[in-house]
Amino acid sequence: MISIISVNYNSKEYLEKLLDSTEKYLKNNDFEFIIVNNDEKSLDLEQQRQVDVKIVHIGKNIGFGAASNIGAQKAKGEWLLFANPDIEFIDNSLEKALVFMKKNNTAGIIGPQIIQSSTKKPQPWTSGGKTSLSQILFRNTIGKAWNKKNPVAVDWVSGTALLILKSDFIQMGGFDEAFFMYFEDQDLCLRMKDHNKKVFFYPDFKIIHHDGKSWGNKKIQKNYYYSSQDIFFKKYHNALSCKFLKLIRTIFKGK
User: Fold this and answer.
1) Where are the beta strands (DSSP E) in the chain?
2) Using CB atoms within 10 A of its CB, is residue 169 exposed (0-12), middle (13-18) or buried (19+)?
């Protein structure tokens, strides 16, 4: 069984589209759908669903990682697919990703090719090498993993849609809840690599992404990003790198 876990925050309209696409394209798979509701209001879906939908109401926004961990605890599936509420399935290529994982014992995490709804092109910065100062400063796009045509091992894939064995996820302690949102996906992937398993960008599995529609206040969103970026650098880089990061941010603030 696959447990699809989605964290809702101001995303009901897009969540309904995700459920529509799930019913349309994944109906031949054995799966459950778990929605962890980070809204203060209860979540009432517009219609009865053919799929098995469980809603876990939190009552406040506790962050993506913490909410996803709660969803994983409720999950009955052998496999977990963490899926943002603003994505849509466009076919049943998730099945291909599962076959790839089952055939490759070293595969720990898979991320799909994420197609940006606004451009109809692969969304950049959704997989690749571990975030470094040079990437931030020079916007290093060497390799562009998200444009590859074949599966490729990478340091991380985006939590926009991330497939993992539940046993591996639990063994690693789930997402690090120190990250409210952003970088928790990269952190999970790097820890997976420390467990001697690989992270793959798998372009034969494709989804559509409507990209951050739950956030109206971009300033608050950016503050969460910077906070998580600081936590990530303290965890994976030295103190000098952390100082340079703050300097870079100060220089380019507002640009």
Assistant:
1) 2-8, 31-37, 53-57, 79-83, 87-89, 107-116, 127-128, 152-154, 156-157, 161-165, 198-209
2) buried
State the burial class of residue 42 (Cβ atoms within 10 Å of its Cβ: 0-12, 13-18, 19+).
exposed
How many CB atoms neighbour CB 39 within 10 A?
A: 17
CATH of domain 2-213: 3.90.550.10
Phi, psi dihedrals of residue 20, rounded to the nearest 5°? -60, -45
Helix or strand or coil: residue 225? helix
Residue 45: its pLDDT value, please? 82
Q: Which residues of 121-149 are buried (b: 16+ CB within 10 A; e: fewer)?
A: ebbbebbbeebebeebeeeeeeeebbebe
pLDDT in tens, 191-228: 999 999 999 999 999 999 997 665 566 788 888 999 99
Report whether 85 contacts 15 (CB < 8 A).
yes
Rounded-to-integer distance, Cα 39 and Cα 205, Å: 30
Cα gap 137→123, rounded to integer Å: 20
For the chain, what is the total number of helices (H) and then of strands (E)?
A: 8, 11
pLDDT given for residue 253 in this prediction: 65
Q: Which tokens is 165 given? A: 């064995």
Residue extents of the structural domains in the chain: 2-213
Report DSSP state, residue 53.
E
In this structure, the strands spanning 198-209 and 152-154 are antiparallel
Please, are residues 6 and 15 in contact by the beta-carbon 8 Å criterion? Answer: yes
How much is the pLDDT for 172?
95
Cite the beta strand spans of 58-178 per DSSP E: 79-83, 87-89, 107-116, 127-128, 152-154, 156-157, 161-165
Cβ(38)–Cβ(8) under 8 Å?
Answer: yes
